[in-house]
Write a structure and sequence with these properties.
Number of helices: 16
Order of helices and strands: HEEHHEHEHEHEHHEHEHEHEHEEHEHHEH
Structural class: alpha/beta
Distance between the termini: 49 Å
CATH class of the largest domain: Alpha Beta
Strand content: 15-25%
Strand order of the largest sheet: 3-4-14-9-10-13
Radius of gyration: 19 Å
Shape: globular
Number of strands: 14
């Protein structure tokens, strides 16, 4: 039996991580979601509908591009990019949002609710809701609303109601808290469309499965370039949907090294980074057991990253499991390295990456220098940087061209 067939177990556990730690009021709705997904994932009509939407609306498959100039600039291994920035709405998020909204319609719901950090999940869900004719409510921290203003406008244009979250650090964790509270109050008519491989079972499973299209495409496409598997795959990790999507097809290929890159932010001090796997410990938050950053009271610690989509104090339970069994490795990238990669990829390849994706690019640039020219690295370029351009240029001067 393959890894994907055996993980998670029937209770949603990846080893000791995962599960569903939810209040009684949500037990029946989540049981209904689990049952519905079990039916839909094997339904020929659902699979055909999803295939149609991906090809004729999202623009899949997205290509793999050889970053020739970046590879020569770094020296060492050849760097390839899986171009999720070319997926409709500019990131990988639509891969699971379209499927989640189909699930919502199957359950007879009229509204979808979600959190968003960088705004990519919010835009994708608002897009899917518009396409399928459902209401959409997005919760977003006030800090991220200012920082990711272009995506806020996009959500509103698409018809979503954006709910500002003003408590705590006013970022992603607080947006999740707020969205869960709203969902509980309207559970009969709505579904909470979680934006990553986090949350109570079955969401870590569902989002991984919906995002696995990235990995399946990559495996086939990479052979067209190199007639082999990549030596390493690199992807950023916040909650971890883009990374699980691309990792999923390669977990059983032990010769392929898998690197999940966490945000080191401003440094090692608690509150200055969001490197959960590196500095965290086992704990439960937002309905699942995983590795999380804790304060001195054992509660979720404050976190920070320049990438609003990855400043989360925990990580998907499957990531915690894969690290615990030694199948994945954890890389680190700080704010300055991410910004440098943002500008370098832009100037050398004509591709402006999302700040979250720039973390993966930065780590791949460092990794390439340690490997021989006969080695290959595939980076999941999970999103484009339109949303980040104003913030970056206001805070980091545009450097002289590198060519």
């Amino acid at each position: 039996m393959s890894y994907l067939e055996s993980h998670p177990d029937e209770n949603g556990y990846f080893g000791r991580f995962g599960g569903a730690f939810i209040p009684p009021v949500l037990e029946q709705p989540f049981a209904e979601i689990t049952k519905a997904y079990g039916e839909l994932k094997n339904s020929p009509k659902f699979l055909e509908d999803l295939k149609y939407v991906r090809k004729h609306y999202q623009g899949r498959p997205t290509p793999i591009s050889y970053a020739k100039n970046l590879s020569e600039y770094c020296g060492g291994a050849k760097i390839y990019l899986k171009r999720e920035d070319l997926n409709h709405t500019g990131a990988h998020k639509l891969n699971h949002c379209m499927a989640e909204v189909i699930l919502a319609k199957h359950l007879g719901k009229t509204k979808v609710i979600a959190e968003t950090g960088a705004g990519q999940h919010g835009v994708a869900l608002a897009t899917a809701a518009a396409y399928f004719g459902l209401e959409c409510e997005i919760h977003m921290g006030e800090v991220d609303i200012v920082k990711e203003h272009p995506n806020v406008i996009r959500m509103k244009i698409l018809g979503a109601k954006v709910i500002p979250v003003s408590h705590g650090l006013k970022t992603l964790k607080e947006a999740v808290d707020s969205a869960f509270d709203s969902y509980i109050a309207q559970v009969d008519s709505s579904i909470y469309c979680i934006g990553s491989v986090v949350g109570p079972h079955p969401f870590p499973l569902m989002v991984r499965d919906f995002q696995s299209v990235v990995g399946h495409e990559s495996k086939e496409q990479f052979f067209e370039h190199e007639d082999s598997l990549p030596d390493a795959i690199v992807a950023c990790v916040g909650g971890g949907s883009n990374s699980m999507g691309i990792f999923s097809a390669f977990i059983d290929d032990k010769e392929v090294a898998l690197y999940g890159v966490e945000p080191m932010g401003r440094g090692e001090k608690l509150g200055d980074h969001a490197a959960s796997l590196t500095y965290g410990e086992e704990g439960v938050m937002h309905g699942f057991n995983s590795i999380m950053l804790k304060d001195d009271k054992g509660e979720a610690a404050p976190v920070y990253s320049i990438g609003s989509g990855i400043d989360y104090p925990s990580v998907g339970p499957e990531h915690a499991h894969l690290m615990s069994i030694g199948r994945t490795k954890v890389g680190l990238c700080n704010d300055d390295e991410a910004v440098e990669a943002f500008y370098t990829l832009s100037q050398l390849e004509g591709i402006i990456p999302a700040l979250e994706s720039a973390h993966a690019v930065a780590y791949a640039m460092k990794l390439a220098k340690t490997l021989g020219s006969d080695k290959t690295i595939l980076v999941n370029l999970s999103g484009r940087g339109d949303k980040d351009v104003d913030f970056v240029v206001e805070n980091y001067p545009i450097p002289n061209a590198k060519f």
